[in-house]
Amino acid sequence: MDTLPLELFDRICDFLAIDDLKNTLTVSRNFQHASERASGAFSQFDLTEDNANVFLDLYSGRRWGYLRLVRFRTHLPPYQADDDNKVELDVDGTEVSNQCRESFQELREKDEFFTKQILFLFTTLRTIEDQVSSGKLQLTIFTPVREVYACPHRKSSSWRLHLQDPEKLPELPSIHALCLNEGEIILPLQEAKCLQRVDLRMLIDMAVHLPSLEHLGCKLSAGSGWTGEIVGEAARQYLHDWAGPHRDSRHDFAKALESVTLPSTLRNAKLDFLFPLEFAERIDQREPVPNLASPAAHDPFSSSLRLLSHQLRKLELRVVADTTLFWPEDGAASFPYLESVCILFHMSSPSGGWYFKGPRGEGQDTKGSQITEASYPPLEDTPSDEEIDEYAEEGGFDISTCTCSLFRVVPNDEALVPFLTAFAKAASTMPAIKEACIWSPLAWDPYDVVDYDEIPEWNTTGWGIAYTGPNTLGFGCFPGQAVISESRQLWGMTGRWMPSDELRYLFQKIG
Fold first, then answer.
1. How many domains would you assign to the chain?
2. Residues in domain F-box (predicted)?
3. pLDDT at position 94
4. Is residue 328 one of the residues assigned to a domain?
5. What is the percent of the chain where pLDDT is above 70?
6. Residues 347, 376: contact at Cβ < 8 Å?
7. Which structural domain range is residue 322 located in?
8. How far apart are CA 63 and CA 331, in angstroms?
């Protein structure tokens, strides 16, 4: 039996059930190897600092070739309020309290703790690569969710976690796919937990150390300075995502891309910056949103995503973006390899404007709020923090969900037409394009807007335009419409809205 080709053992085991594979493990060494591979028992591993030795023992040999997915959950130590240690003296000898707010020292310690975990992860994987050979893995990293037993202010942290000294990370040729996802969806005021948001640039800082990277993905917080649906003022204050750190994180991502070269192997990107989507949808559309592009005239984050897509074949985005996502203000764009592009854009723009308005023009001219020094969380407790705490202690948290007004369901041509024009212009220059889609989720629940009885309450839909090339099934079609056509197809869900002749011509040039 040992003289049989190894491929035959693999083929036999591919047809066996799990219980049968348990039996073939002991038949011979060749059957053992084939059974381990076919069972999938060694295809995934949840790596931690505690089981690193087990991981090294398991995969420092032939099983390294079976491994396809490594998951790593970062963490921060639980935070417990300590009244005795939260009053310090500043340089002037004045007492400074940090019962509610994180100090600069705390933020630095969090960055250091997080960085050590990422370095441990990369070093552990590199250890096996040095002993065996390069594999072909997906690495999924989850952002930290911290247990917090303290003031509710500390259950929503707007300061981003940073990866320090990323140049010290070793290269990992085995990683062909990298995903950075949020640890879990939490409700901070109902749980003793805090989601630790991360600086977006760490996606780039890690990707440059993966020379075989083919796929880059993420599912990261939808926090964008929006006013959520929570009723109580105290609850809104506690959950508020300060606009300053969010804007800086987007700009840092752009700066990172300007200074590095991504692996030439990168072909696919699935980047969700609106996770979870329902949090980005259930917002109060009456309230202004921050200008995330300032001080630049156009959004650096959008521009950087366009540059990232130059070498891609498939791009899927959920994002707050402006026209520079598709076309620069000066010069031209190039997308020589893109075959599939799907953009879900939020109805608010980075500048603080809106791509949609109310049925009677409500909110058409709403401008974005400017980001100033007051747009950052304080690094020490303030009198207003104490007032909110006292208010919450007396009345509790009102976390009912009925105050957001969703009324923006009509295209705001002043903002939307330039955005669509840039998309159509870019798509028409993609020589390999097979499918393209641009859309935005809409919802109707106007709360305090009257005289709209003809429109049903809480109606959700999507607004968008899609293209499919010849002999392409394309995106998920409606029931009964999954027909492959021999010609190009262009269709949309746009209600009564119609494009101008010029814009229609640009869309017709796609493909």
1. 1
2. 1-45
3. 61
4. yes
5. 83
6. no
7. 67-508
8. 50
Work out the burial of residue 67: count CB atoms within 10 Å of its CB; fewer than 13 is exposed, 13-18 middle, 19 or more buried.
buried
User: Residues in the chain, how many?
Assistant: 511
Q: What secondary structure does DSSP assign to 435-475, as a single string?
A: EEEEEEEEEEB-TT--S-TTS-SSEEEEEEEEEE-TT---S
Q: According to DSSP H, which parts of 338-412 are helical?
A: 383-395
Instruction: Give the count of beta carbons closer than 10 Å to the beta carbon of residue 194.
Output: 21
Q: Name the pTM for this structure.
A: 0.91
Report whether the peptide linkage leading into residue 359 is cis, meaning its omega lies within 30 degrees of zero. no
Q: List all residues 6 or more positions away from 81 whose beta carbon is below 8 Å from its beta carbon.
A: 99, 149, 150, 151
Answer yes or no: is 14 within a domain: no
pLDDT tens, position by position, 294-335: 999 999 999 999 999 999 999 999 999 999 999 998 888 999
Helix, strand, coil percentages, rounded to 5, for the chain: 35, 20, 45
In a domain, 256, yes or no: yes
| Dist CA 216 CA 184 (whole Å) | 20
For residues 304 and 351, what is the distance between their CA atoms, to the nearest angstrom? 16
Instruction: Please indicate, yes or no, if residue 35 is contained in any of the structural domains.
Output: no
State both tokens at 111: 């960055």
Report the alpha-carbon distance of residue 481 to residue 74 in Å, rounded: 44
